Amino acid sequence: MSLPHLLLVDDSEAVLAFEKAALSGHYAISTATTGREALAKAPQIEPAAILLDLSMPEMDGDEVLAHLQDDAALRHIPVIIISSEKLRAEACLRNGAKAFLPKPIRAQELLPLVERVLEETRAQARAGNVAVLFVTVGKIELGFPLESVRNVLHQTATRPLPLGPSYLTQMFELHGEPVAVLDLAHRLGVEHAQPVVERKLVVVERDGVRIALCVDEVRDPEELAQDEVTPRERLGGSQHGALGQALLAVAKTARGALPLIDPRALVSRELLRKLASGLRAEAAR
To answer: Are 263 and 213 in contact (CB under 8 A)?
Structure first.
């Protein structure tokens, strides 16, 4: 795995050499000796962080920071101010910089500071992410929020559940608890692509009732960034087809735009109450 890339910006070759010596081995390093050079390199190398001096020829660090903050493609890059000018550095912190280290630099302070800023940046990015389990049914691929999923099982033996609609007529027991099987292909009006023995069961729970959605394939979980997910309220249309109220959002993936649904919402609360009674009755038999 490649090392995170840092862009060091300072008009002093001595400062750049010191920073490189302290950080090399932990990070890949690029340097710039002017603000304009830094702005030219930043979109090319997409650094994990920029260490930025303030007093430089052609363009000061304050102006470099302002340009970075104004650019939607660059403003996510954390900037660490390296300067002897405390008041200017504090102003930069108010304007988007993530940290400040005063000159003269100490090696024992520089590396921990960079590590902290990068970890905080990663934590902030993760906080807005959505973990998703994508499944396929016939030719349809859709995703479930991973937090809604309790288990993923291979297709198992089932027995009839004679009370639900046509897509909800089977059940099985999991750890002694009854689980209803919802045939997602039937629910969406498509044909399964896999024979019964090759299918998977994705177990979810709503209001204390466990439901296993029968699907053809299950992919490994994926983590989507916040800007890769368009919430339901920003989508056109009113009913959203067969997915109805279960649709949560649409995700941008390498495989195209895919719907994200709440699998628990595929069963109405009224049906759920009947289902709970039926499951208890069947389990007692």
So the answer is: yes
- The one-character DSSP state at 2 is P
DSSP conformational letter for 72:
T
- The hierarchical CATH code for the domain 130-284 is 2.40.50.180
Q: In the beta sheet, which residues pair with residue 153?
A: 201
Query: How many whole angstroms separate alpha carbon 213 and alpha carbon 184?
Result: 6
DSSP alpha helix (H) spans, 137-215 = 184-188
pLDDT (tens digit per residue) in 147-165: 889 999 999 999 888 777 8
Q: Rounded to the nearest 5°, which phi and psi values hold at 149? A: -95, 130
Residue with tokens 């973990």: 131
CATH superfamily of 5-127: Response regulator (3.40.50.2300)
Flag whether pLDDT at 76 surpasses 90: no
What is the Cα–Cα distance from 121 to 125, expressed in whole angstroms? Answer: 6
